Amino acid sequence: MDIKQFSDTVSATEPDWSREKIRKAWDPGRRLIWAIRRYQANAERKGLWGRVIRKYWSLNHLFWSTVTQCEIHLACEIGGGLLLPHPNGIVIHSKSKIGANCLIMHQVTLAGHVKLGGHVDIGTGAKLLGPPSKNSNWLTVGDHVQVGANAIVSRDLPSYSTAVGIPAKIIRQYFPTLSSTLYVFGSGPCPENGLIRYELERLVEGQDDTAHVIDVLPFAPV
Ligand SMILES: CC(C)(COP(=O)(O)OP(=O)(O)OC[C@H]1O[C@@H](n2cnc3c(N)ncnc32)[C@H](O)[C@@H]1OP(=O)(O)O)[C@@H](O)C(=O)NCCC(=O)NCCS
Q1: Which atom of ligand 1 is the closest one to the Cα of 147?
Q2: Residue-wise pLDDT tens digits, 31-75
Q3: In a mutational test of the pocket of ligand 1, which residue from 141, 147, 164, 187 has the highest number of ligand atoms less than 8 Å from its CB?
Q4: CA 24, CA 46: separation in Å to the nearest integer?
Q5: Which residues have CB under 8 Å from 43's CB, separation 6+?
Q6: How far is CA 177 from CA 2, 52, 183, 205, in A?
Q7: For 43-52, 116-125, 204-213, which range has the lowest pLDDT when averaged over its residues?
Q8: What domains are there in the chain, each with its CATH number?
């Protein structure tokens, strides 16, 4: 899907809670998320009743975690509208943060300090490994990002980008300010200043036939 279309369809900031609404009795992914939501909603509750409620929801979480073979920690910060279409084998570290309206496929791992922006779709089997280096505490993924199936992401990904492969490389990035999508055809060294040299074809909206090649362009900050 074109990345502009992709970013237009779902908000990165306004959680769409209807995505989490339990649709049927057997709805393991949504029930797992619901258990986390209820536990967190009662996290500050004091007294015996608070402890009983937390125990109930932590057991409920344990049940759905066992059913789905997922490990999504009760302490994870999860923005509203998370979708787990095939809830199986998903592992999310307790320190990970997930933005609004993300979608996580089966067998995905968010290892360590991983911060997802809003509307990040992660394909099946992808692994995001944070932190990327000693200098950074977080592996950060921007808004409206697609991570391909089985990708291994060990570096930050900017907003409006699609990354695939091992290690994951950005194959295209949309620049809202330029109204254009940049398709990456080759990569070069990544200098200290953070600019990435790529050979790019720049497709200006409505001028696909007259696309021209530019050789260096900085990626937008996350
Ligand atoms: C990343 C993704 C969203 C890109 O989709 P797209 O925009 O339609 O991309 P395209 O099919 O145009 O592919 C663009 C290029 O990336 C490559 N590519 C796409 N997905 C890839 C992946 N997961 N790993 C490696 N390369 C991939 C394609 O081979 C193609 O390369 P080429 O230009 O050299 O031929 C999609 O491929 C993907 O991985 N989606 C996850 C789907 C998923 O997990 N579904 C689970 C269903 S149960």
Answers
A1: 1
A2: 999 999 999 999 999 999 999 999 999 999 999 999 999 999 999
A3: 164
A4: 32
A5: 54
A6: 16, 52, 16, 12
A7: 204-213
A8: 3-176 (2.160.10.10), 177-222 (no CATH)
